[in-house]
Amino acid sequence: xxxxxxxxxxEFAQWAIERANAIIxxxxxxxxxxxxxxxxxxxxxxxxxxxxxxxDTLLDAFDCLVDSD
Length: 69
Fold this sequence. Notes:
Blueprint: H1 9-37, H2 40-65
Helix pairs in contact: 1-2
């Protein structure tokens, strides 16, 4: 993922929208595809991967908001 500098609330909102879209495209699509297969183990794994991606993204955002001084 490309590093960007966020200087204001509008840029942060744009980053959040773009990141959410990427998560849905990557993880949400995989989850939907696996859901059609009916394999409970794969479905659980895909759901966990989606949840972990969301958590990781929130932690990345939080880390960027913390002043490093």
